[in-house]
Amino acid sequence: MPPFPPSAAERVAELSEQRAALVRDLGVRVVGDPEDLRPLPRPVADPAGPPMVSSELATAMVERTIQTLHEQHAAEIEAKDRRLARMGRRLERQRARPSAQDLSGRELLRLTAGRARRRLRRHGASD
Q1: Is the pLDDT of residue 127 over 60?
Q2: 124 within domain boundaries
Q3: Which of 39, 35, 46, 34 is nearest to 5 (CA)?
Q4: pLDDT tens digits for range 41-61
Q5: What domain range includes position 78?
Q6: What is the tally of structural domains in the chain?
Q7: What is the pLDDT of residue 42?
Q8: For a Cys staple, 23 with which of 6, 34, 60, 96, CB 3.0–4.6 Å?
Q9: Greater confidence, 39 or 107?
Q10: Does one domain contain both 59 and 76?
């Protein structure tokens, strides 16, 4: 059994007693002594306190964390800005196109024929 802190010694002893009693009370033939299920507690001394790091290391860790969060936030903002710029350019292109009602019959026919050719090429190439 690995070493454990002194504060756990009582609980370990209690659980070990329960385990030994369970085996004893099963009413079956047991090879060995159920009392061997009770390990000898080997508590270790409490450490002098919580683990410590130098203030320089702690400062460096906090600074790096803040820098990383700042970089991630800046990258997210840049990605959103690029996405908004693309959306704006797409909207401008859509607004620059004349609507079907603004086209003459000849221009409308040319637009429709061009679209039909592109679709036929696209579908004809995949067959």
Answers
A1: no
A2: no
A3: 46
A4: 565 555 565 677 888 998 999
A5: 54-105
A6: 2
A7: 61
A8: 34
A9: 107
A10: yes
